[in-house]
Amino acid sequence: MASLETTKNIHMQVQVRPSSVNQIKTQEPIDIPTETTTAGQFLRWLFKLLFYLHLIFITIFVIFLTLYGLIFTTRTRHFRPLEYYPPLLTAIGCSATVAFIWQWITSSSPSKAIKAAFSLSPLLTCAVGVLLVYISSRVSLAAGVIAIVCALIQSLYACWVSPRFDYAIRVLSVSTAFPPPKTTILVIQSIFVSILYLCLLVAGIGRATAIRSSWKALFIAVILLSMAWTMQVIKNTLLVTISRIKYMNFAFGTEIDTREASRDTIKHLTGSICIGSILVPVLGVVRGSARAMKLTAGDTDEFLFSCANCYLGMASTLVMYGNRWGFVHVGAYNKGFAQASSDTWEKFENEGLKELIDSDLTGSFCFLSGVAVGAICSLVSGTWALIIHKSYATEVSIYAFFIGYFMCRVAMAWPQACVSSYYVAYSEDPQSVRFDSTIPARIEELQRFQA
């Protein structure tokens, strides 16, 4: 814990030597309180305990299903493991490879990565939809139609936000220009842990599928929920680690050892990460649906749209206590997630950055990158399953999509952390010589557009 305390006090004593100036500039202290309430500490401990207990439960559960399948083989002869597992295991290997390559492209050429994500994602999603429709089962038809509609929405969204590409490329380039040392090692480690866990869950899904029972759907749902939460925690653990390093560099010009930051994150911040890994996706969906409803309603006062403003206001209030920007203060100051989210959101509002944050494309870029990799895995595994055993093709395609999506989000956590740290550090000291004109120029552009 000593290293975290040292990090929290760095801003009180650090002296910055920016390359653009000759004299030493002393950084004024920033009073950002750490959550020390008993209730907050208990909540973080509780979620940390729940997460580890859930990992133990899932492991035991999968082992039980596997042993059950081996013992009662005569009752599960309808299940063909040699035709079911290879496509899904291939999806895991494919997702790890493509995700790692994708984050490398993002690092080396942000412009190509952003343009590729917004152009390829709709095409690949549409291809998955066509594959599912071709399979021709009731579930695959429904899933295929949904995929095609999503592809159309992605295409329209890409056209709508295309004027923001230049700014998004600039921010991503500036914030990721000097990644922390050993970032690649952290990404590889995170991907390796994800591979092991996904292999475990794939074994459980296969054995749950082999069981002819009304409980089968429940078993698979539990495994998929475990996949979602665990992969979010792995992603956000990497995000918090990199956020801490980049924030301290942007804000105070200090360097933190990457290995030490990773150890501190796992040891002291897992509880806050577990909470944030649940809140951010849920509240993100709530806020997205509220904004979509508001855009649909416009200025209409009809009954069906009368609650649009109320819903949007509620969503905005909830997001204040659960947003991805809060992970920066979780890593830098060991805050509880809700407090960290509230502090960063309040700072954005005070500095007039809220509109800029709302229009930022980093989140959309990472999301569409995950969709694109998920679609690639779905096409590879789904086509394989369609050729060797058509009855498995629908579920294999859907599971492979989730595997690819979550794996890519893990690999893309570090660029997202760099951008988040850049915004948060800027909001706390806009006049710092460590920032160029990227954000001020964009703010002026938005103000001219509104005028």
Q: What features would you describe in this structure?
A:
The chain is an all-alpha fold. The radius of gyration is 23 Å and the shape is globular. Strands 1-2 form a two-stranded antiparallel ribbon. Strand 1 and strand 2 (25-26) form a beta hairpin. The chain has 18 helices and two strands. The chain has helices at 2-9, 38-71, 81-108, 110-135, 138-161, 165-175, 183-210, 216-252, 258-268, 270-297, 308-320, 326-333, 337-350, 354-358, 362-388, 393-411, 413-428, 438-450, and strands at residues 15-16, 25-26. The longest helix is centred in the middle third of the chain and has 37 residues, at 216-252. The protein has one domain.
Describe the secondary-structure layout.
Layout: H1 2-9, E1 15-16, E2 25-26, H2 38-71, H3 81-108, H4 110-135, H5 138-161, H6 165-175, H7 183-210, H8 216-252, H9 258-268, H10 270-297, H11 308-320, H12 326-333, H13 337-350, H14 354-358, H15 362-388, H16 393-411, H17 413-428, H18 438-450
Antiparallel strand pairs: 1-2
Helix pairs in contact: 2-7, 2-10, 3-4, 3-7, 3-15, 3-16, 4-5, 4-6, 4-15, 7-8, 7-16, 8-9, 8-10, 8-12, 8-16, 8-17, 10-11, 12-13, 15-16
Main sheet summary:
2 strands, antiparallel
Structural class: mainly alpha
The run of helices and strands is: HEEHHHHHHHHHHHHHHHHH
Indicate how many domains the architecture comprises. Answer: 1
| Shape descriptor | globular
Give the beta-strand count.
2
Q: What is the share of helical residues?
A: over 70%
What is the helix tally? 18
Q: Please tell me how large the radius of gyration is.
A: 23 Å
- Low-pLDDT parts are 10-34
Tell me the strand percentage band.
Answer: under 5%
Overall pLDDT metric: 86
**How far apart, in Å, are the first and last alpha carbons?**
50 Å
Which strand order do you get reading across the main beta sheet? 1-2
GO cellular component, one term: plasma membrane
Keywords: Membrane, Transmembrane, Transmembrane helix
GO molecular function, one term: transmembrane transporter activity
Transmembrane segments: 51-72, 84-105, 117-135, 142-163, 183-205, 217-234, 269-290, 302-321, 361-387, 396-414
